């Protein structure tokens, strides 16, 4: 086991390739392989309880995405947006379910204790129809690339969010109108330092502070929502949005709810892995809580602020009030402190894939330069798209729709192709619908987001 695996054995965010060895007869299916129980062969020395696993999933899901939900409801309407949020939450939960279940099946078939997301895709292709087996390595590379792109894209959103929050606070207090680019540049030293953290134990204090800041900020934000006079009068009666707004709604909600990158590490690290799926289960309880909170925050936030709601609801709070400034500052700091954790996974994936190119004398220098380059890449994208709304929609449409919906549906279909597609091949039809939905979100969401970016840049 390498350095990265040792450092991340307890980390629910781990998703790079592990040292798992796939059985050499992976392409040959045998019913006797089903007798193998992968759960009995896992190292449970540092396994987490059901409650701990639930906490990990909640922490990974209840992030900055929930702050964008009122703006998502604005693009969907109260009725369509509220119901649509629940439906998308169900779709995301189902995709998590089929990914983990497929991983468990492939673990039995290959006599492998556990698999990461990328290894699950690799094993599915290698166990699937013979014409697809040559694509196994490519599928593994594609999943790891999608994970890297998703987390780096999310880190760009973090940079824009923090800069926007600081811009509001500073501009109000100094009575000037400083450009957001100045605030993005000012974050570079902190971002570079956070990107250089290579041991998770050094992130623990920052994560603890981030959780405290986020909870405090959420609490004050809810106070502003439920004390708003518009909410009490229910003056906002926009039940449905226009058709051209719907791609923004879908892309934003997918970005907000989707957290599939942390699912496999959490499921693999459970003391009782079979409790992750089923009814009730860790997954079902977590997604019920998450979707309920997201729907309520979205609906009530939109009722409170209406058409004036900002891409992050904290930006809609009155800047001239001290509690609102405290909220913006606390949540901005919480997001900034989470930046290093957001980039931890893609940085490890990238370094593990290129470190063989370096002489051992220059490994430390090479990793340092690589980390600085990725941080600066997120800064460059933030400078190119310093507007939060289209950036969130674009990241959700491109990355989370592929990683959270298309890949799990494809992996399940391939792994079940020969004998487990169900009566009338219902799994094939169901997954085809999921892939079509994902592609529509990808195409139309990206198209609308790019148009918004172009229009904003031309002003």
TrEMBL record:
Topology within the bilayer: Multi-pass membrane protein
Cellular localisation: Membrane
Region ranges (Disordered): 1-20
TM annotation in the entry: 78-100, 141-162, 182-197, 204-226, 246-270, 282-306, 326-350, 362-385, 391-411, 432-450
Primary location: membrane
InterPro entries cross-referenced by the UniProt entry: AA_transpt_TM
Residues covered by the Amino acid transporter transmembrane domain: 51-450
Biased amino acid composition, Polar residues: 11-20
Keywords: Membrane, Transmembrane, Transmembrane helix
GO cellular component terms attached to this protein's record: vacuolar membrane
Gene Ontology molecular function: any one: L-amino acid transmembrane transporter activity
Recorded superkingdom: Eukaryota
UniProt xrefs under PANTHER family: AMINO ACID TRANSPORTER, GH04538P
Protein name: Amino acid transporter transmembrane domain-containing protein
Biological source species: Atta cephalotes (Leafcutter ant)
Gene that produces this protein: 105621527
């Amino acid at each position: 086991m390498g350095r990265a695996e040792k450092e991340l054995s307890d980390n629910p965010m781990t998703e790079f390739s592990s040292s798992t060895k796939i059985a050499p007869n992976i392409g040959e299916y045998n019913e006797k392989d089903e007798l193998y129980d992968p759960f009995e062969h896992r190292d449970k020395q540092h396994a987490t309880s059901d409650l701990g696993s639930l906490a990990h999933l909640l922490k990974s899901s209840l992030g900055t995405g929930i702050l964008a939900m009122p703006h998502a409801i604005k693009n969907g309407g109260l009725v369509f947006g509220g119901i649509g949020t629940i439906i998308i939450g169900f779709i995301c939960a189902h995709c998590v379910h089929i990914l983990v279940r497929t991983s468990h099946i492939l673990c039995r078939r290959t006599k492998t204790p556990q698999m990461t997301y990328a290894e699950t895709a690799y094993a599915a292709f290698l166990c699937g129809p013979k014409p697809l087996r040559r694509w196994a390595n490519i599928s593994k590379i594609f999943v790891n690339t999608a994970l890297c792109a998703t987390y780096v894209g999310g880190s760009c959103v973090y940079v824009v969010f923090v800069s926007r929050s600081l811009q509001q606070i500073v501009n109000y207090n100094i009575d000037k109108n400083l450009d957001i680019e100045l605030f993005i540049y000012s974050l570079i030293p902190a971002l570079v330092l956070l990107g250089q953290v290579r041991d998770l134990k050094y992130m623990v204090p920052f994560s603890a502070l981030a959780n405290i800041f986020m909870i405090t900020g959420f609490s004050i934000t809810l106070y502003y929502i439920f004390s708003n006079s518009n909410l009490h009068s229910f003056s906002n009666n926009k039940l449905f949005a226009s058709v051209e707004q719907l791609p923004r709604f879908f892309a934003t909600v997918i970005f907000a709810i989707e957290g599939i990158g942390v699912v496999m590490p959490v499921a693999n690290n459970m003391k009782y892995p079979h409790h992750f799926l089923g009814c009730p289960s860790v997954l079902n309880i977590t997604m019920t809580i998450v979707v309920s909170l997201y729907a309520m925050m979205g609906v009530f936030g939109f009722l409170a602020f209406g058409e004036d709601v900002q891409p992050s609801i904290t930006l809609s709070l009155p800047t001239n009030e001290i509690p609102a400034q405290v909220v913006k500052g606390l949540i901005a700091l919480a997001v900034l402190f989470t930046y290093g954790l957001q980039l931890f996974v893609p940085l490890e994936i990238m370094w593990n894939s290129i470190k063989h190119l370096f002489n051992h004398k220059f490994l430390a220098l090479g990793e340092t330069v690589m980390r600085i380059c990725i941080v600066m890449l997120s800064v460059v994208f933030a400078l190119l798209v310093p507007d939060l709304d289209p950036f969130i929609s674009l990241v959700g449409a491109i990355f989370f729709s592929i990683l959270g919906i298309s890949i799990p549906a494809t992996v399940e279909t391939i792994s079940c192709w020969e004998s487990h597609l169900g009566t009338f091949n219902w799994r094939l039809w169901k997954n085809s619908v999921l892939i079509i939905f994902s592609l529509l979100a990808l195409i139309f969401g990206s198209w609308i987001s790019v148009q918004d970016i172009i229009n904003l840049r031309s002003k």
